Amino acid sequence: MDLNTITEVVRRPSERPGTDWHEGDAWLAGGTWLYSTEQPDLRRLIDLTALHWEPLVPTDQGLEISATCTVRDLYAFPCPLDWTAAHLLRKSCEAFLSSFKVWNAATVGGNICMSLPAGPMITMTVALEARYELWAPDGSVRFVDALDFVTGDHRNVLAPGEILRRITISEQALRRRTAHRRFTLTRLGRSTVFLVGTQRRGASDLLLTVTAGTTRPVRMAFDSLPDVRALRHRIDAVPADVWFADPNGTPDHRRHLTRHFAEEICRELTAGDLA
Q1: Are 81 and 174 contacting, i.e. CB atoms less than 8 angstroms apart?
Q2: 195 and 210 in contact (C-beta within 8 Å)?
């Protein structure tokens, strides 16, 4: 779609692009959503791809993912064999409601900052206990846990002019055992629910992440794998206004699916039959 209100595109932004932020600006990375709908309030686009941030950087502490890393690059990244949770990166890419053409342009950071309930990069980073590095227009930097970034449907903690620079996932999180479940109304449709359970090696704990069925990510922590009654109690304790409603499912439907799939995840982790 043509954006007929845009009067300028900044092709060579400064290394700290937020310092030149003005009302009516928008960050341009993949642009797959930006160009998909009218943007009447925008006047200028700032092209972040010109900064050439390294897409994926493995370190001694884990993995750094640039906000401008494309879905294609994330999917193709060869993770170390002992990162047992790394398959979740590929599974999350496969959860996109998009074609391979969109994969070539859409970015990890763009999906996170859109902050939609079905954003699979949100699911992935919350389940793997990631941290986000945010750059403010005044040059300051702050770090936010992935769990706390999205506050509701299409809402997050970003202030005007603030930018997501990178996502960091620790090696400890990447070495956890994982199991996941996802439900869609059609084979390639938008996620109705997307659940991920992770567990420390040699332990019986559980971190259960619930997304897509809720307006913001929900994480439930258990010291040991819960029985059905305890698991359902925690799921039923999620506030009613957090469950999401759209044509893909009612809140009651999503709660029911969450109970069902959470029990399956617990059984899978107990049996050690991991995807």
Answers
A1: no
A2: yes
